Amino acid sequence: MDAIHRKYLRMDKLPHIWCPGCGNGIIMGSFIRAIDRLGYDQDSVAAVSGIGCSGRITGYMDFNTLHTTHGRALAFATGLKMAKPGLKVFVFMGDGDATAIGGNHLIHACRRNIDMTAIIFNNHIYGMTGGQYSPTTPRDAYATTAPYGTMDPHFDIAKLCVGAGASYVARGTSYHAKMLTDLIVEGAEHKGFSVIEIITHCPVNFGRRNELETPVDMLLWQKDHALRMAKAAKMTDDELKDRFVIGRIHRADIPEYVEEYDRLIEMVRKGDTDRG
Amino acid sequence: MSKRIGMEIALAAAEAVALCKPDVVAAYPITPNTHIPEHLSDIVAEGRIDTDFICVESEHSALSACCGASGAGARAFTATSSQGLLYMAEIVPVVPSMRLPIVMAIGNRAVSGPINIWNDHSDIMSQRDSGWISLFAADGQETIDMMIQAFKIAEHRDVMLPVNVNLDGFQLTHVVEPMMLPDQKEVDRFLPAYKPYAALHPDNIVSMGALGMPDIFNEAAMAKDQALINSKKVILEVWKEWEEQFGRKYEPIGAYRMKGAEVALLTLGSMGDTAEVAVDELRDKGVKAGLLKMKLWRPFPVEELIKAVKGLTSLAVIDRSAPFGGACGPVCAEVKAVLYDQKERPAITNHIIGLGGRDIVVGDFVKIVEQAISAQKKKPKEAYEIYGVRGS
User: Fold this and answer.
1) Ramachandran region of residue B82, left (φ > 0), alpha (ψ -120 to 50) or beta?
2) What CATH number should be reported for the domain holding residue A257?
């Protein structure tokens, strides 16, 4: 391990609990390199996580860290950001955490456009509890609770967040690790609620049930199915079937929640309550 | 005919539930109960039972979906653990108030924090007064039996209340044991088809979950309380029927080597099996020790407890959840409240053990019994002890 990674890790908490071949370590590496590039002081960063395999990340990284309950990471983080707007807040969640049990908080964080970066590990499955299908499990994929394939339509997290009002939405993968670092940097620098959806691989609880036998197979699947925005724009719907877009998907310059909150207080204090 | 099986207890619990042919199962994964609904989803997928299995987006939705299903007249089942039960908590007290006979398995696990996935009873104790019937299984066989008994108790016309069956996370859920699994014919004979008292139906309109103003709230609370207290009669009847049909005896408080006992341990759940070995060791040494294994937690078996402790000089009450600033652990609080009015009662000590999966071995129970005996002469300074804390 090189010095950059050592600097940001709690070495006494390693080795981590993630299975061999898991994508979570790749994401953690990309995140660390992003923070290093951003030049943030470690003490100015707050990392918040929920429950599930992704939730363990706050145990391993040496920032201000807060490991919360299942689904509630964004609600905790909202309180944190409001109380300490100076902190750079990053929220780590899995697909079940962010879009099932915590789905309510996700859409409301998007709606408020509060300045923080949500990093969603989308491995399409509940990995930690043994492979039950989640709201992002692709239709017809196999899971322990769907031995004949899922019949529930799945969420497109990026689309959901654009629809709910997030001002920056991007999608990366655990295969495109360098691009992921770029996206996290861009998301962090964006003022407002940024979502980085990461298509990642769970070989133990998703891959081996879905004809992707090894972690390498899963990474190659990502490579073969991911498309850059520019390329996707030139393709027909038919050609785009089963493919997904990576890169920055949406960026909008809209008022940020904490600043708006402070502005309103300032305005009322001045007695200037006429909104004209 | 019942079949002898060797199986993980969580899977056996699912097999037992499947024998009861639930109409709806709604669940959300949380360790350590997960294998119960997961195995049920397999059974449903194999077409062995005609059940709607709903993979909901949270425990809150799991119990809500069960409420809807049960309200429509379906036999509904769910399972959870720890924070999952806490997340359900908004719905938990509503179920008995609506008199919906939902059955829930709880793979007992410590409540956060720190986050911990291992066993203790802090999850169910947080829902102690919610109005559910609560049973505690001590082993795999009791888990199977209680799962089936639970539906019969819950759906009995004189009860119509939800039942939770508690099985210790990991110590029971993940352990393989030899058990007798009844066959479908036997269960069909024991458990009649569910006939709802009232069901939401367009042709026969009923109202459930209505607002209760102050002028009716006391009465509603008393009705809920009475229903729960009165359910004990049915529970005892159902257990008698079970014994007649399957030959396995169930009592609110099981007794182990209590004949002539002067000191006894009182346990809930799987701890009882370890405590039995401790009692054997103590008896071998000439200590007149016995064990009370509580299986019925709600409604609390008041008369049975008074009877069970007759002749004891010392009673060590074991709690597997901490009271945090309370007078004593939840089991001990009940025991003391019941025995306070008794002219003759044993000296009671309270030991909080096995929190968050901390291992409990035979020697621990031996030590606790010795403490309980000495407490008879010299009352301990503290009303309870958190047993086995390092550095204390």
Assistant:
1) left
2) 3.40.50.970
Residue pair B287/B312 in contact by the 8 Å Cβ criterion:
no
CATH no., domain B3-246: 3.40.50.970
List the pLDDT tens digit at each of the 392 positions of chain B: 999 999 999 999 999 999 999 999 999 999 999 999 999 999 999 999 999 999 999 999 999 999 999 999 999 999 999 999 999 999 999 999 999 999 999 999 999 989 999 999 999 999 999 999 999 999 999 999 999 999 999 999 999 999 999 999 999 999 999 999 999 999 999 999 999 988 999 998 999 999 999 999 999 999 999 999 999 999 999 999 999 999 999 999 999 999 999 999 999 999 999 999 999 999 999 999 999 999 999 999 999 999 999 999 999 999 999 999 999 999 999 999 999 999 999 999 999 999 999 999 999 999 999 999 998 888 888 889 999 999 87
Our count of domains for chain A comes to: 1
Cα B324 to Cα A66: distance, rounded to the nearest angstrom:
24
Whether residue B42 lies within 8 A of chain A, CB to CB, comes out as: yes
Angle at B228 between CA B226 and CA B230, to 5 degrees: 65
Q: Supply the pTM of this predicted model.
A: 0.94
Indicate yes or no: CB of A144 within 8 angstroms of CB of B38.
yes
ipTM for the predicted complex comes to 0.89
Give the residue on B whose Cα is nearest the Cα of A72.
B87
> What SS3 string covers B91-124?
CCCHHHHCCCCCEEEEEECCCCCCCCCCCCCHHH
Instruction: Count CB pairs under 8 A between chains A and B.
Output: 53
Which of A129, A151, A209 to mutate to probe the B interface, most B CBs <10 Å?
A129
Of A91, A85, A57, A51, nearest to A71 by C-alpha is: A51
Q: Which domain holds residue A239?
A: 3-269
- Using N-to-C axis directions, what is the helix angle for B214-246 and B140-155, rounded to 10°? 130
Parallel, antiparallel, or unpaired for β A88-94 and A116-122?
parallel
Q: Do B38 and A100 make contact, defined as CB atoms within 8 angstroms?
A: no
Q: Convert B2-17 to b/e letters by CB count within 10 Å (16 or more is b).
A: eeebebbbbbbbbbbb
Residue A276 maps to a domain = no
Q: How far is B30 from chain A (nearest CA, A)?
A: 6
Inter-chain contact B115–A67, Cβ cutoff 8 Å? yes
To probe the interface with B, which of A56, A72, A76, A101 has the most B CB atoms within 10 Å? Answer: A101
Under CATH, which number does the domain B253-386 receive? 3.40.50.920
Nearest to B83 among A69, A100, A144 (CB): A69
B contacts of A132 (beta carbons < 8 Å): 29, 34, 38, 55
